[in-house]
Amino acid sequence: MNGRMENLAPAGNPEALGRAIAAGADAVYLGYALFSARAGAGNFDENALCEAIRLAHLYHVRVYVAVNTLIRDEELPAALDVLRLLASLRADAVLVQDLGLAALCREAVPGLAVHASTQMAIHNAPGVRFCAEKGMKRVVLARECSLEEIARCAKEPAEIEVFGHGAQCVAVSGECLFSSMVGGRSGNRGRCAQPCRLLYTYRGEKGAWLSPRDVCLRDFLPQLEEAGAASVKLEGRLKRPEYVAVVAGSYRRGIDGLQQNAFAPADEEEAGGLRQIFHRGGFMRGYAFGAEDADVIDPDRVSHGGVPLGEVLQVKGRLATLRVTKALHDGDQLRLLTFDGDAELIYSGPEIPAGGAALLRLREDVRCAAGDAVMRLTDSRQLEEARALPLPSIPVRMALTAIPGQPLSLEVTDGESRARLTGETVQQAQRRALTEEEAEKPLSMTGGTAFALTGLTLETRDAFVPASELKRLRREALEALAEARIEAFARPESPQLQPEPIVLPEGPAPDALIFRRAEQLKGAPEGLRLIWRPEDYRIEALEKALEETLPEGVWLHLPTVCGSDELEALHAFALRRRDRLGGVVLDSPGQLGLRWELPFGAGMGIPVTNRRTLAFLLGEGCAFVTASPELNARELAVLCEGQPPVLLPAYGRTRLMLLHHCPARTYLGLRSGHAACRLCDEGQPDSLRCHPFLTDRMGERYPLLRQRLSEGCRVELYNLLPTRYPAAVRRLGCGLLTALTDEKDFDHLHEKCTAGHWNRGVE
């Protein structure tokens, strides 16, 4: 890093990579053909990845490769091969979610830089500290972090990357199982089906209650820089290359303004261009800058909103006359907002200036009327300009030496790297000696390369040099300079080592019960490890329950997501109440960044899908870990071989999402006051407690439960049916975990259940 905030662009395919470089990206992130959390993007095979890295490095653009899915045991050899390939191609970093894969990378290819993917759900300073201690160079922070939390994280010894623009997952990334549980397509495997973008009913009103607006932090770049963000990530590996060009170009202008002490917010033309290329529900300022609830969610539309273009003036037969407020171009894609719903059409005709009238031919199925609004979804002129944006030219200077009797010599340099080639012995000119003008013409013919000649020095005396020889030297010298630039920019080659074999302790964990309220313990068998996952994590509520209602030796299950202050307060509480607590259950990898001076285990918020992750966590001191609910029976049998201390989630509703917005507050249109909200505490009729369900299009109800923290509530969306593994799970020899959510007590478990992924697994 050169000290300036990095402009990090997506590259879902080679075309998008070219547009990112042309628009001024400092770095790109892309996916390899295997183990990428965006399996639907074009991604890169080995040859394409090699070419992509070479092209990017030629322009001194860094390449980060996403290998950020959860890895199964049988996939570990292939994943190791991918890490070795990235090291050999000298990728600038690998993005990783799986803790076992991160440990494997450190052992086998220690020279390959590791970035903690946002899928790892690192969201506070102890989490960043943990990642740095485990050799990770950078942490891609969870999108839910406040600006204050970003600043605290930036003080830790790892680079901080923040999301700056584009689509946002509504759930905490890496903690979402909705697509997995309802359709067998796992977001943790790169195959999310995006059930969050579907319509649900809340309090009788149908809407996209789980669909967030796109974020745009273009005008907040100074605050992000001041907070210490090293990189601003632009979302969009599934977006078209033109989108990459427009967005990366806008953020390039903003970051350059910062560097020149002349930052200016995007003007109307630039801001309008960002809206035109894509936005969902209008842009929001993100959690970092105070977006809450109704500011976050747009229940009205899940697709691109476009920009207002005008309205329908009149309709005659199949022709509609439009009055346009912006210039209309041949090939523009339009949306008519009609009484019967939206209608999308392509305009074909002459360019119409702003204020003019245009004729639009309607399809047979389209009905519209005077006064209907017209939106432009794509601007053909904008797309053409984005496609035509040239790759930057690298300025070079040349020095040609042509002295009769000596070898012809050409040196080229970009100011950092250089290359020098020699040719045949120079002949004495018989009639007309080489002049600077005659030398410059063939040497400046750099078309088809990345270079442009900006200066030539000629040392010669009565020399004759054929133009063909000058062209050959130019071509070969520029090829050598390109290699020198690539070599100078690339990371050093990493040693390739053999990883240590996996060694696991044997001895199963005892069966465990997760409960929310003390009365749910009624009917529970003796000998279970009791794990308390309270609704209210405020310290006074924890103290009261621990003193008045809970049995001694209960384990406290930590919340998955909380800021540094909240986590440190919970840490202090756990240490202070070691006399009553049996231990704590950590529910985020970052919680390993604190020293727990009492027993601790790993909950489902720290996903475990392979034995390397299991070994890593046990090596960190975990008394037990919890297997991922995405594993099938065969995969669980491999994980549990030798009966290590693993808990298998054998009964309970699976949490599908952890939400930062509250559907109840969103329904009410509330945009501030989230942390201080008292609707549920006071039993208000508009509270989430009184309306605790989302209903899908099939009429199925998904429970909503709150987690109350001092910094505000998180909302948990649970599966409509509990998961219950068949009796055969007992034969795996590991501890079984029962989790109670809305059950009255242990005697009243739900009879209607699903087998989860026991039989089917996930894609």
Topology:
Blueprint: E1 6-10, H1 14-23, E2 27-31, H2 46-58, E3 62-67, H3 76-89, E4 93-96, H4 99-108, E5 114-116, H5 125-133, E6 138-140, H6 147-154, E7 159-166, H7 178-183, E8 200-202, E9 205-207, E10 214-216, H8 221-227, E11 231-234, H9 241-259, H10 268-277, E12 283-284, E13 307-316, E14 319-324, E15 333-338, E16 341-346, E17 357-361, E18 373-378, H11 380-388, E19 394-402, E20 407-413, E21 418-425, E22 427-428, H12 436-443, E23 451-460, E24 463-464, H13 467-489, E25 512-515, E26 529-532, H14 539-548, E27 554-557, H15 564-576, E28 581-586, E29 600-602, H16 611-619, E30 625-626, H17 633-639, E31 646-659, H18 663-667, E32 693-695, E33 701-709, E34 712-724, E35 735-739
Parallel strand pairs: 1-2, 1-11, 2-3, 3-4, 4-5, 5-6, 6-7, 7-11, 10-12, 19-23, 25-26, 25-35, 26-27, 27-28, 28-29, 30-31, 31-35
Antiparallel strand pairs: 7-10, 8-9, 13-14, 13-18, 14-17, 15-16, 15-18, 19-20, 20-21, 22-24, 31-34, 32-33, 33-34
Helix pairs in contact: 1-9, 2-13, 3-4, 4-16, 5-6, 6-8, 9-10, 9-11, 12-13
